[in-house]
Each structure stands twice: as structure tokens, then as C-alpha cells.
Amino acid sequence: MLKEVAFSIQAGQMAALLGPNGCGKSTLLRLIAGALTPDAGEIRVGGRADAAERRRLLSIVFQRNGLDKHLSVRENLLFQAALYGLTGRAARERVEADLAASGLMERADQRVKTLSGGLARRAELCRALLHRPHVLLLDEPTAGLDPGARDAFLESLDQRRRDDGLTVLLTTHLVDEADRSDRVLLMHKGELVADGPPGVLRARLGDRLITLHGPASPPAMDGITWARRRGAWTAAIAGGRTGIGAIANELASQGRSFTIAPPTLGDLFEQLTGASLSPRADDDAVELAA
């Protein structure tokens, strides 16, 4: 269930809905696409609130591949073009141009069932953009892909977005995927808990995040509040290199084992919600110590 979700995305931006599975991300995409009707409130795409008009302006790619696996990539695209009213030479030219833009020309005559997961996702992206939508909705677009295929898909998406001035809203539970976006919306249990550029959101945790290793309780240190999450004591620290160095020296003098790293969007999500983007049994148990 979604709870008074409100946001807007500027034309040409890529925004990521970042949250764990089951938090309402996919439901929100279906509402925007007009596949579901909201109980209250209003959804506008390009200034249009009518669901049918919204659908003409956008395209959506769900987690499950919707291509006909027995047809070739080119045949799938020509069939989709016909559904949009493109036939004959106009359809062929559009399909060939999009195959080239997506780096799929060499695979155009392969049946979809013979493609790797990454290539199949790129083919589906190509199909989704055939009618030149203003807005593209992507539901966990890289789910199940290995890191190399995931990077290739996201690079293809970035290129198409730059070429077409496309507005993109994608859902993900992967921090590095959200980091590529212009804007991130953190979602937890149907609510938006934070919204902003990735760097601005990370900066809310300070300059660095320190994590203590081992079972011992954290030492009392001026200006430091420790939180125990997922079996480790952590604290956000600021003050630049000098302040961080002083804290590191004090911990080292006590013989403590620790790491210091830049904060991530996942760290912020945990601080705001007490939960993890990858839920585990102890995620909701957050203990504080000053």
C-alpha cells in the first residue's frame, strides 16, 4: 500500500526509486502507467492526468521479458511497429535505426530465445522506445543480469536517453544503479523517506562512515553517536580530513579494528528506516550508543 506518495520529475532527468523488494516500487509504476487506478490523488505525465493520454506519452518495461522468444529481434520490432501504426518503409527504417542505436544490428536476425539475458533486455528496451515515448518506466531492468551485462544495458540506456531527451524512472534495490541517476527517491513500506540527487543524499551522513569490527562495545567519543546495525557498530563522521584522522588515531591507540569509507545510499536508507535494502533477520534491530 502506498502512503501519500508525492514527487515530480523534470523532463530529461533519470530518477531511481530505490528500496527493498515489496516496498511499493512496482505498484507505483503501474499506477503511473495507468494499469492501476489510485484510490486518491492525481497522476500527471506531461501535464496530462487522463490515463489514456498518459499511456500515449510513456512506455513501460516490466521485469518479465515481453518479447516473443520464437521470433527474431527484428521480427519482434516490426510487429511492435505495426501495433503503433508504422508499416512498410517507415517501419523498416525506424527498426533499422533503433537496432543500430542499441548496438543490436549483428543480433537482429537471431531468435530472442538464443540471446543472453543482457541482450534480450537491450532488445526489449529497443522495442519500448519504438514509438518515441516522452517517459520510460523501467521495473528492476537489470534483475538477473551479471555485472557486465548490467553495465552494458545501463550504458545503452544512457545513450538513448541522451539521444532522445528521454525522461526515465526506474526501480531498483541496487545502490550503484541508483547512483547513476540524476535523482534518487528512497522508498520504504509504501512511503518516500528521502528525495534528492545522490551526492546530496549521501552528504546527509557526513564525510565518512566508520565501522567497528569485533564484538566489543564502542568507546565513548565526543560528538560521535554509534548505531548498531546488522551486527556492527557504525557512526557518521564529519569535519574533513583532520577530524577524521583524529578519530582514527584514537581508535587505533585503543587497539580497535575499524574501517572508514564514504557513506552510501544504502547507509542512508538504514539510518532513516532501521532496515536494509537487502533484508535480513536483524535489520529492524537498531541500537544506539553515544
Structure description:
The strands form two sheets. Strands 2-3-4-1-5-6 form a six-stranded mixed β-sheet, sandwiched between helices. α5 (117-128) runs parallel beside α6. Helices cover 36% and strands 19% of the residues. It folds into two domains: 14-196, Rossmann fold (3-Layer(aba) Sandwich); 205-289, no CATH class. With 290 residues, it is α/β, with parallel strands linked by helices.
Into how many domains do the coordinates divide? 2
Q: Helical percent range?
A: 25-40%
Question: Secondary-structure element sequence?
Answer: EHHEHHHEHEHEEHEEEHEHE
Taken from the alpha-carbon principal axes, the silhouette is elongated
Tell me the structural class.
Answer: alpha/beta
Number of strands: 11
Strand adjacency order, main sheet = 2-3-4-1-5-6
Number of helices: 10
Radius of gyration: 23 Å
Strand content: 15-25%
Terminus-to-terminus distance:
36 Å
Query: What integer is the average pLDDT?
Result: 88
